[in-house]
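Q: Could you fold this chain for me?
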Amino acid sequence: MSTMLTVDNIVKVYRAHGSEVRAVDGVSFEVETGTTFGLVGESGSGKSTVARCALRLIEPTSGSSSIDGEPIGALRNKAMRRLRASTGMVFQNPVAALDPRLTIEQSIAEPLRTHTSLRRRALAARTHELLDEVGLAQAHAERLPHQLSGGQCQRVGIARALATRPKLLVLDEPTSALDVSVQAQVLNLLQELRREYALSYLLISHDLDVVRYMSDTAGVMRKGSLVEVGPAAEVLVSPQHEYTQRLLAAMPETPGAVPLPRAPRIPVERAAQQQWPPDAPTSASPTTPSLNENRITS
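A: Sure. Below is the predicted structure, expressed as structure tokens.
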């Protein structure tokens, strides 16, 4: 099985006023192609810092990472730009992640202008295609972020992250700022996109239910260190580490709640065969839910 993202002994130390904070302390893991790796832990445990170091959005103090077998530590200029086009990121606050002065169409088109040669009609066509992929109407293209709901803004963020046809998406708390009903829609949208296009996800969350629902593999972080890692069904059901056990014990129980269903895993062979986007759009089959029907059902 091939590996999409490798994180090797990442360390990040912040220094200020003669003191230092070790935000990340020797974290290592792998995200296999076509799967989701869920990184869970309490706020301040270093989850987002690990992801930003892995993509080199911030420089790690030490350690390295590679995407699809290519080390990214020494990449410069054109090589780094090519890498940026193969990855995408969905941020925690969907409204703050969008420029309030740009229309939705302009926000989605921004990475396309930077990383592709698309212009005018082709650019507009690709933007409208992305809106359709995430279940938004074409009328949303001319609106500003403040005219959309939080869930709609997050769909725009997902569309923008998918614009350059990436192989890897980093999802940094993609539903924490949304209402519960909207969370379900966004999670199902992400699952549909992953299955349809054989994407790989690095999911960051403090919500154990979200990680259990979305992830093939889960890692638990505490105070900058990865304390437990393994199949999500094992780590989040029968944890071995004391800290993971305490996290599970602290979860509130809702009487009559229906457990989140687990989405099927993508066959790895599809990752090498499928292309994004398909050559021609196809209608949803009776056995495959439409991206506009993003609801969790029991």
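A (continued): The first helix runs from residue 47 to 54.
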